[in-house]
Amino acid sequence: MINLQPYSNPMYFVWLAVALLPLMIGLYFGKRLVVYQTIISGIFLLLIFGGPKWQQGLALIGYIIFQLLVVGGYAAYKKHANQTWAFVSAVLLSIVPLVIVKVVPAIEVGRQSWLGFLGISYLTFKSVQMIMETRDGTIKEFSPVMFVRFLLFFPTVSSGPIDRYRRFQQDYLQVPTREHYLQMIEKAVHYLFLGFLYKFILGYLFGTVMLPRLAHIAIMQRAAFFHSGISLALVGYMYTYSMYLFFDFAGYSLFAVAASYLMGIETPMNFNQPFKAHNIKDFWNRWHMTLSFWFRDFIFMRLTFFIMKHHLIKKRTRIPQAAYLINFLIMGFWHGVTWYYIVYGLFHAGAIIINDYWLAYKKKNPQLPHNRWTEGLAIFITFNVVCFSFLIFSGFLNTLWFQAH
Amino acid sequence: MNTQQAVIELLEDLTGTDISNNLDENLFTSGVLDSMATVELLLELQAKFGIDVPVSEFDRSEWETPNKIIAKVESLA
Amino acid sequence: MKAKGKLWLIFGPVIIAAGSLILLFSLPLGWGHFSDRTERQAAVSLSPKVFRGRKIKQQALENNYVPFFGSSELSRLDAFHPAVLAAKYQRSYRPFLLGAAGSQSLTHYFIMQNLGSQLRGKKVVFIISPQWFTKQGQRPDAFGFYYSPLQTTDWIIHAKNNTADRYAAKRLLQMPSGRASQTTAAALENIANGQPISKFQTTVLRAKETMLLNEDALFSHFQANKNLARVEKSEKVLPAHYSAPQLNQLAAEVGRRETSNNQLDIKNSFYKSRLSGHRMKVLQNSQTSFDYRQSPEYSDFQLLLTQFSKWHVNVQFIIPPVNDRWANYTGLSMPMIRQTDQKIKYQLQQQGFTHVLDLTNDGNEKYFMEDTIHLGWRGWLKADQTIDPFLTKQQPAPSYKIQNKFFAKKWQTSTHIE
């Protein structure tokens, strides 16, 4: 039984093109071949989660049934009652599998929970989102079939981008006009080739060619600078890893968006020139956007809303600070229960809080210079702060300080 | 006091910026309205106009300029 | 029609690009001959790209290049390095350096896989470091760094059902790089289990081989490396005519000059960048528990010997010493080193590999080592005393008697030689 990891090698793209062609012809003539689409989705999921990964496949099936019960159950309940405890329990239940998968390797190093499968965190985002929107009343009808289609939309199943249910449903049910579909195909081809450049050329250059060498040199110099391991190679590693992370992930995201477009679904973009950000807030509006917007809409906004409505914190400036800390702490834990992911989260919370102070100060002092140079300086500082956070995120410091022998 | 004026005053209270001259400015990209101010706006709308907008209903593209906010408030009130 | 025209605009370039790519890599194109300079660059480049490839090595070895297998010591390109001596004194051979930090037996085994017709009945030099023989043996990450899909594919296509090939397949499957490709891993499983690989697998692997060969031939034309310039610069330091005593004296002089900042006879630059300051304190007695006597490396090494025997390759082995002062400082056990040396030599001699230059007892010679465990100045000269006649003079054909017991776990872990 063969196994294909999404977008990882040229063959995957060949299979993808062959599989999507009939679907594309259908869409071109204004018809979505639902049965065909369901069949090829099944085949691709089998390729991703079959063969040597069959255990993941089983975990995925179990997970889908579980979420159908939780989300469907809550939607049925919501029709005649709206107690907060029910909502809270549904959210908690929905994240239980993800929590187990993240906590198991932290308790016993190297062990992976058998509940886990590639993409579990992205599916969890989608499920929690459904429960929250059902609570708000914006999702009124629960359709189990559409919910499964939404969760298992195969172009984005492994690593996002994280779509929104109502948006997805609308695209799925409404076939684009021919003119619009041609525009989507045009964009898809562009994204696909941009993705090749990003992931297979630049990502390869930074990640496969340069990174191991720099890692090797940095580890050789781990005793440098009073045993902190701070060396020129480490600085090089930081920038190279940041470039690798961006090009690899942005390339992958472009593939996922391109495949979605070919299927007539306008999955949202994940990146918007993040290294041009003027400050950390701006950065999070450009980096892994579907994740940060998910956090903004479903955690940060709700948290501030809750705090303000119940007057939990008196001082106004303290409210967003608390919300940022909790927001980014959760994001850190979501990445994995290791010290460096959590420190990464706290670091960004700290950076954004400092950034807020600066923005307030700037507002009070309109005489501060604002020109091309100060903007350049802002971009430079933001870029370096971000790269440093990625060095933490990379886990390389963990290797350098605690594992390298 | 009409809705337009009430919204403009509300925004000035929340953000400390007088926006009466740029009613078509995108408040999110210009940084006038951040997530925090948005939540405050929603709470104030609830208190002052009695309109209930759940956070998940809050589609940024429909609320991005003062004019759009005014139109939204008028349609929901 | 407007929409149709637009479709052509969108997909036309894609179709052309895909078509040209398929042509570029699937036709047996050859990509021409490498220039003399490209050959010289590749021979001293020590670059993973060269190790992983095939065509440039084949061409060089068909000329007067001789493979020098080894590891990190090959990068000590001082004036007395074999590559410099051979070039300066217009010897009949030129070393083609194969190996760098982290390359051990298993890497070398695969490096030589597609050099069969060039190595058959020829001579090679092999520098074998005791430091390879750790408890873990070949580190998977280092193996991955030099891993070549091309060599692996070539090897799989020609693999037989015998002890050595089954062992190699098993070892490869223990490395993440060996499992990276589905087809490769499946074929390796077959070989490891003593089953033939299927027709379909062979077809896929052959297609893959053509593609990888084109890639190798095309990209091998681009050799960018500073090492050749270093060799050429080093040549200028040497006297015009070869004279062993004169060279020995010069090596001692250079060695003295370049080891002035420490008491351990370690090259200044190495000491400064890797050992100075606080680092030295930590390293004191840090190697007391190092042990090279038990290691899977012994069986990996046996793979090489089997291959050499199959192709009747005449091999000059060199076992370098450890810098004595360094060993004292770090607490490295010399009896352990000597036993390791004995074990390696036993494995060689039992099977008829008689050309062994054992330098283990030269660790206290002045300016023999460039730093901790790497040959330098006078060390290279001493090795040259053996290498030069071995390669330039007629040698009797070797007669090898390969014994499969060296593939067994029992040999890997044995500390008693009987």
Describe the secondary-structure layout.
The complex is a heterotrimer of chains A (405), B (77) and C (418).
Chain A: H1 10-28, H2 34-49, H3 54-78, H4 84-107, H5 120-136, H6 144-151, H7 165-173, H8 178-220, H9 224-227, H10 232-262, H11 280-284, H12 289-309, H13 318-335, H14 339-364, H15 372-394, H16 396-403
Helix pairs in contact in A: 2-3, 3-4, 3-5, 4-5, 8-10, 10-15, 12-13, 13-14, 14-15
Chain B: H1 3-15, H2 35-49, H3 66-76
Chain C: H1 2-26, H2 36-45, H3 48-52, H4 55-62, E1 65-69, H5 82-88, E2 94-98, H6 105-111, H7 116-119, E3 123-127, H8 140-146, H9 149-158, H10 163-173, H11 182-192, H12 199-219, H13 227-237, H14 244-258, H15 268-275, H16 278-283, H17 297-310, E4 314-319, H18 324-330, H19 334-350, E5 356-358, H20 377-392, H21 409-413
Subcellular location (chain A): Cell membrane
Main location (chain A): membrane
Keywords (chain A): Acyltransferase, Cell membrane, Membrane, Transferase, Transmembrane, Transmembrane helix
In short:
Chain A: Belongs to the membrane-bound acyltransferase family. The complex is a heterotrimer of chains A (405), B (77) and C (418). Chain A has 405 residues and is mainly α.
Describe the overall structure.
Chain A is built from 16 helices and no strands. Chain A has helices spanning 10-28, 34-49, 54-78, 84-107, 120-136, 144-151, 165-173, 178-220, 224-227, 232-262, 280-284, 289-309, 318-335, 339-364, 372-394, 396-403. Chain A starts with 9 loop residues before the first helix and ends with a helix. Chain A has 3 domains: 10-175, no CATH class; 177-268; 272-405, no CATH class. Chain B is an all-alpha fold. Chain B is built from 3 helices and no strands. Chain B has helices at residues 3-15, 35-49, 66-76. In chain B, helix 1 packs antiparallel against helix 2 and helix 1 (3-15) packs across helix 3. The longest helix of chain B has 15 residues, at 35-49. The mean pLDDT of chain B is 82. Chain C has one domain: SGNH hydrolase (Rossmann fold, 3-Layer(aba) Sandwich), CATH 3.40.50. The radius of gyration of chain C is 23 Å and the shape is globular. Classes of the chains: A mainly alpha (405), B mainly alpha (77), C mainly alpha (418). Chains in contact: A-B, A-C. The A-C interface holds A 2-3, 28, 178-179, 182, 185-186, 189, 193, 212, 220-221, 223, 226-227 and C 3, 6-7, 10-11, 14, 141, 145, 182, 273-274, 278-279, 282.
